[in-house]
Amino acid sequence: MIGNSLKTIMVLAGVYLLYIVISCVIVPYFYDPKADPYWKPTTKLNQNDKKVVSPDKVVLLQDREDSGLARLQLIKNANKSVDISTYAIHKGPYANLFFGCLFEAANRGVKVRILLDGIVNQFNKDLRLYSYAIFTHPNIELKYYEPLHLGNPWTWNNRFHDKLFIIDSELAVVGGRNIGDKYFSAAGTKGASNDRDVIVYTEKQEGNETSVLKQIDEYYQYVWDHPFTENAVKKVSHRKEQKGKEKVEEALHLLAHAKDVYPLPIDRAIDWKKDAYSTDKVVLLHNPHQRVNKDPLIWKELVSLTEQSTKSIYLESPYIVPTQKMLDYVEPEKIKVDYWKMLTNSAASTPNMVAFSGYWSNRKAIINWVNELYEYQEKTESLHGKTYIFDEKISLIGSYNVDARSTFLNTETMLLIDSEEFAHFLQKELNKTVDNHSLQVSEDGSYKAKEDVEQADVAFWKRIAIKTLAPIIKFFAFLV
Ligand SMILES: O=P(O)(O)OC[C@H](O)CO
Predict the structure, then answer these.
(1) What are phi and psi of 30, to 5 degrees?
(2) pTM of the entire predicted model
(3) Residue 261 — very low, low, confident or very high, per pLDDT cuts 50/70/90?
(4) CATH classification of 38-53+280-479 is 3.30.870.10, yes or no?
(5) What ipTM describes this predicted complex?
């Protein structure tokens, strides 16, 4: 009897596993996304357009602490609304301060909306407690994009990787950072993640119709109302409501004593607008919201810009895992750029062994594609920036990594900035990371020696993991 039940359970589990493999692995491997027949690249690089100055100004936000502080201050100074979308909120002191600021803003009447990836966040215990308090608060809402439904494994690959932060519909932060201590930690913090954001705002009231902020606002609303998003909590018991309130009180208390846990004074005014650059055009790029494989709109844009570039391309991505399906969109004979520099994590710095193993198998090919390939040599910090600069004119910053997951599977948001001044500045900043912390990879895969940068040791377990994973990931790179 017990034997029969066990057999039935094993058969059902096997059928379910097969259902998962078909939905999450086999279908995405074969399924070609439907292409938008009207798609055109956003920018023609070599066109001598009549110069139109956009009303948008941009500020590069690189320093980890400043970037964390800016978010907290912007929430504190919000008057009407705060709209946030991010892939992940990691539990820890920064997330608690962040929620402290959000609840403080909501308590004074600011409308707060938070949109997160479902699967990645719905098992975060702290977030669950906040979600109970959010449910009962009239001014804060929390939604999950594609939360886990065990019966719909074909939705599991559709991850929400957008990263937007919009204040009063008047200013936005677009970049690559999630919310968590490692993105905003002080210099020298172990496990710190280095990234870049852009603050975009407009000062001209009459120019607002052409501002990217309108586009960002409309896109946020579109995703907020999208059928793939759901309210995080549908009902709460009295006990849960109580637990949520206690968590919020804790966060507000922490905020009141922020100086004990946060290295920078939250109320210190930063005049970040002093570092603003004027622009000719700013556009929000995003992938379409489609399940299984998406029409790879951001990748198509990057390929088009690569093919149009004549002078230079600077590319920084924490993971570089090109797949054949991605390369099918490229016509190599069209790439005529004079100089191409690429920067990514080394085996020592990468926190993502799966993605790095995918890169490792392609490393030799990449060395041949570009003029100079660099790898970041810090053992306790990693690169997380997604930065692309074409012909010292067009810059893209945002969430998109050069891999199949960002290309076909995830939602992604990138800010395209047409500004020579900004591109020059960004290029200089990227070169600082290259010059001070990275080594160039030679044709044989070894590093070229450099006086001021030492090759970082790769932990023994990492070497073994890369050697073991690389041949396996080759077959699954379309999911990485
Ligand atoms: O580290 P992130 O935030 O760029 O995310 C990497 C994952 O591949 C997202 O799917």
Answers:
(1) -95, -25
(2) 0.94
(3) confident
(4) yes
(5) 0.94
